[in-house]
């Protein structure tokens, strides 16, 4: 009996990660054109996670199909994490385009919205305290991007784990 060659997950990670990034950008553009790109509601966040989770499941299904019907839990976790990270990188590139090219005053508007919410929820907050907080935030703005990648990796790991538990099928030992 001829053994099937091992299918490499890298191709699936890149292809479906790029597809995840594309779908996420399209979703973000839909929000932008509707004027909802400043909203950070639970619904929008859940939809983003559902897009990620669905793409990981599709990737795992396609990988298992190409791999002779077999998928290990380790492969599923690796694929889920990889797809999410590639999608996250595409999302960061889109965000940089949005905040620097498409809408250069995006961060100013985000800060205005945050300021209004902060003063509404904490009437004792002074302008000086706000300014100090903004100065501190500006110093550490660069950390936003690695944190997004880490969060995406964790969500991808969880999605890969769940998908792996659904789709796993070990190769029989001969």
UniProtKB/TrEMBL annotation:
Keyword Membrane included in the entry's annotation: yes
Coiled-coil intervals, chain numbering: none
UniProt keyword Transcription regulation, yes or no: no
Chain segments annotated as transmembrane: 12-32, 44-63, 75-97, 143-167
Keywords linked to the UniProt accession: Membrane, Transmembrane, Transmembrane helix
Protein name: DUF4199 domain-containing protein
Species, as recorded: Flagellimonas lutaonensis
Lineage of the species this protein comes from: Bacteria, Pseudomonadati, Bacteroidota, Flavobacteriia, Flavobacteriales
């Amino acid at each position: 009996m001829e053994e099937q060659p091992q299918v490499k997950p890298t191709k699936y990670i890149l292809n479906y990660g790029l597809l995840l990034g594309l779908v996420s950008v399209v979703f973000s553009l839909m929000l932008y054109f509707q004027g909802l790109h400043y909203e950070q509601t639970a619904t929008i966040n859940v939809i983003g996670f559902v897009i990620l989770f669905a793409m990981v499941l599709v990737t795992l299904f396609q990988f298992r199909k190409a791999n002779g019907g077999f998928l290990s839990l380790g492969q599923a976790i690796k694929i889920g994490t990889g797809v999410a990270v590639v999608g996250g990188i595409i999302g960061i590139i889109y965000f940089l385009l949005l905040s620097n090219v498409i809408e250069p005053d995006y961060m100013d508007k985000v800060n205005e919205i945050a300021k209004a919410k902060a003063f509404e929820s904490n009437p004792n907050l002074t302008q000086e305290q706000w300014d100090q907080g903004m100065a501190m935030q500006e110093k550490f703005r660069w950390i936003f991007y690695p944190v997004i990648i880490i969060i995406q990796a964790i969500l991808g790991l969880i999605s890969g784990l769940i998908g792996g538990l659904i789709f796993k099928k070990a190769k029989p030992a001969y």
